[in-house]
Amino acid sequence: MKKILLLISLIITTLTQAQQSEKAKALLDEVYKKVTSYDNIVIDFKYNLDNVAENVYQETKGNVTMAKNKYVLNYLGATRIYDGDKTYTIVPENEEVVIESTKEDEMALTPSQMLTFYKKGYSYKWDIEQNLRGRKIQYVELKPTKANSEVKQILLGIDVQTKHIYNLIEVGKNNTKTTITIQAFKTNQPISENIFKFDKAKYKKQGYYISEL
What we know:
The protein has a single domain, classed as Lipoprotein localisation LolA/LolB/LppX (outer membrane lipoprotein receptor (LolB), chain A, Clam), CATH 2.50.20.10. It has a twelve-stranded mixed beta sheet with strand order 7-8-9-10-11-1-2-3-4-5-6-12. The relative contact order is 0.19. It has helices at 2-35, 200-205, and strands at 41-51, 56-67, 70-75, 78-82, 86-91, 96-101, 122-132, 135-144, 151-159, 165-172, 177-187, 209-212. 19% of the residues lie in helices and 46% in strands. It comes from Capnocytophaga canimorsus.
């Protein structure tokens, strides 16, 4: 009898986990569909890195403008432009520009790919719901399927009403916790296509060292 009850319990648990996984994937797919429907997205974010054991705590802010497979990222005093073909990293402090040829599938900051990481290499499940400043945030937990991954888990917070990302919490196996919180999320803004173009002559004139990898 005990073995039968145990078997029933295992079956129920397995079915529940499968349902939670399907529920989590359905929400992620819904968010992905919403994100890719916009012409462009402008995000202000806060980045926190915390490791209590190593007594490390960092907090910085940045912003990113994305349109389809192009973006401009301002972060840590540098500007990074991706024009759909090459990446241009501009560092005013060093008066330097680094140009790299980059395949689109390697990028993780485009609307079409900012959520595709969950589609391969992760298991996921429905997690807690929190009420944050009047907003219902549903969390989905993602865990790498590869044992050699440096990531222990990822928690993706999603605004239940807007289906926009609220935050992303990544916990490493070294117990480093990285949190990216979206502070402003604007869509379909009147932006110029020129912001995704790198003006090489301009930076040469300003005396920047330009290297192409």
